[in-house]
Write a structure and sequence with these properties.
With 484 residues, this protein is α/β, with parallel strands linked by helices. Helices cover 40% and strands 12% of the residues. The longest helix has 31 residues, at 189-219. Bound molecules: beta-D-fucopyranose.
Length: 484
């Protein structure tokens, strides 16, 4: 591997780490917080591996100041976190001052430690009360989201200037409403597409609202906010590029996984081929006049989450396919509405504990492709990348996670290559700072660069965390010597 410090990293490149409220905070019913769909879902028989719940998670709610010190010790330039709607507006009713206070203290701790707060408004945890009114399949939820965004902005807009509306709408719409694997656990292709459109709408309306709210700040001389969204994008590779059946399957996955998000957000239109693929499932019934213009409100950055690319086939499953569906008892179906027949044959590459194939070049390809295809593409940030492995604590007390270390460095290498090829990437956030509640997998899969002992909540920086910290320091030193 190339010496990673030799890539042309922009001087203000952000090296960060990410978490999400439902995965780390715990305190699920403390200080006025009420159920999100994940609290409710976790109570359902067979929904989460091992019957785990987000009730306590890694107790970040109480340990937040020490966790921020840990970030400082690692040399992180930014912390990507999410606010919990169910904490800020329990039941989507009145504002909960104690909920807001937690985030206000977090932001102050971060700023005090010299760490840039990178805030996400929605990382999958809808108040359960709104799910009972139809959730994201109900258009009104988009309007409720905008009001919630305004509440968070009113409280934190004076100190936070990086705002992300949604994290991975693909998962919160299709995996939550169509495949049944994630909360709210619905198995309805039509609801998944309705949720997709309503989340897009919520995003666009919130971008415009936050801009209006931020205008006063700008008039007073502050830098304008940076507002964007995070998508999980893939490179869909036909298993046999000479086989039209595989090429067609890869086109379908590219449409559903990438372009169903990128095109409305950046071009104000759903892709024509996608509309054809999902014709029977009513996506177009939800599009009202003005929606697409609202959805395409200009954004200042695009967050890209990437863990694996996808080798796609249109032929029936062979024995060795790559899937990563949690082994829970609940019924599940394919999230790929209208393209359920598609399969993902293994390429015999190394796999992580999630069974995801390790192929960093997929990330390089993706980043380069985006700039080539979308003329108005805003700057990119890798807002999540990382890997789960079955860590062990060594007799010396350390976690010598050589595989995760190699994974992270190889993906940073791919980002460096993409930048050298012209991609406008301005930051990288490793997922995750801490081991945490990995959705339907519960506490079974560890993604942290810091280990958490779930019995004692003790934090131990893993070798991957040490390697990441050392890299950050070396890149910064390099940039410093180059510019002085
Ligand atoms: C992403 C999610 C994040 C985490 C990682 C492993 O899809 O955004 O919360 O679970 O996967």
């Amino acid at each position: 591997m190339t010496d990673l410090t030799t890539y042309p990293w922009p001087a203000d490149f952000i090296w960060g780490s990410a978490t999400a409220a439902a995965q780390v905070e715990g305190a699920a019913h403390l200080d006025g917080r009420e159920d999100s769909i994940w609290d409710h879902f976790a109570q359902q028989q067979g929904a989460i591996t091992g019957g785990d719940t987000p009730e306590v998670a890694v107790d970040h709610y109480h340990r937040m100041p020490a966790d921020v010190q840990l970030m400082k010790q690692l040399g992180l330039g930014s912390y990507r976190f999410s606010t919990s709607w169910a904490r800020v507006k329990p039941g989507d009713r009145a504002v909960n001052p104690r909920g807001i206070d937690f985030y206000s203290r977090l932001v102050d701790e971060l700023l005090g430690a010299g760490i840039l707060p990178w805030l996400t408004l929605y990382h999958w945890d809808l108040p359960q009360a709104l799910e009972e009114k139809g959730g994201w399949a109900n258009r009104d939820t988009a309007l409720r989201f905008v009001d919630y965004a305004e509440v968070v902005y009113d409280a934190l807009g004076d100190r936070v200037d990086h705002w992300t509306t949604f994290n991975e709408p693909l998962c919160s719409a299709l995996i939550g409403y169509t495949s049944g694997e994630h909360a709210p656990g619905r198995l309805d292709p039509r609801a998944g597409l309705a949720a997709t459109h309503h989340q897009h709408l919520a995003h666009g309306l919130a971008v415009s609202r936050l801009r209006q709210l931020g205008a006063a700040k700008v008039r007073a001389g502050a830098q304008p906010d940076r507002i964007g969204i995070t998508l999980n994008l893939t490179t869909a590779i036909p298993n046999d590029p000479a086989d039209p059946v595989d090429v067609e399957a890869a086109r379908r996955i590219d449409a559903l996984w990438n372009r169903m998000y990128l095109d409305p957000l950046l071009r104000g239109a759903y892709p024509v081929d996608l509309l054809q693929d999902v014709r029977e499932y009513g996506l177009e019934d939800h599009i009202q006049p003005g929606d697409l213009a609202a959805i395409a409100a200009p954004i200042d950055f695009l967050g890209v989450n990437h863990y694996h690319d996808d080798n796609v086939s249109g032929h029936p499953e062979t024995v060795d396919v790559v899937t990563s569906v949690a082994p829970t008892a609940r019924e599940k179906r394919s999230p790929f509405v209208g393209s359920e027949y598609v399969t993902f044959p293994s390429r015999q590459l190394p796999r992580t504990a999630m069974d995801w194939e390790v192929h960093p070049d997929g990330l390089r390809r993706l980043l380069v492709r985006l700039g080539g295809e979308y003329s108005n593409l805003p700057p990119l940030y890798i807002t999540e990348n990382g890997a789960a492995y079955d860590d062990v604590v060594a007799p010396d007390g350390g976690v010598h996670d050589a595989e995760r270390t190699a994974y992270v460095l190889a993906h940073i290498d791919a980002v460096g290559q993409a930048i050298a090829e012209g991609a406008d990437v301005r930051g990288y956030f490793v997922w995750s700072l801490l081991d945490n509640f990995e959705w339907a997998w519960g506490y079974d899969k560890r993604f942290g660069i810091v280990r958490v002992d779930y019995q004692t909540q003790k934090r131990t920086v893993k070798d991957s965390g040490l390697a990441y910290a050392a890299l950050i320091e070396r890149v910064r030193a390099n940039i410093y010597t180059e510019t002085h």
